[in-house]
Amino acid sequence: MEYSFVFALPASFNGKAVVSSTKTRFGLFLPNGVSYGIYLWHGTILYFLWDIIIPMDSWAAFSLFGGCTFAWSYLSFRFYETSMNHWVRRKLKAV
To answer: pTM of whole model > 0.70?
Structure first.
């Protein structure tokens, strides 16, 4: 089983930070790809789930919110961000 980890070393190699990540066995890049989507989408998802999670137990509400946020962020990353990135790179390569 392979997990994703990010290691950032402080400016010790010629003044540049060294960042590395590994790919999970499901093809996810955590936290590079999905974490930014979680940052972008968490407010919107919380807005739409607010009436559902208020009467729930704390752990159940957090689990629902976290699961929905992660799922939406992954779908956004996989089907929108990645495909748009490839499209833009193809267009720029043609120029």
So the answer is: no
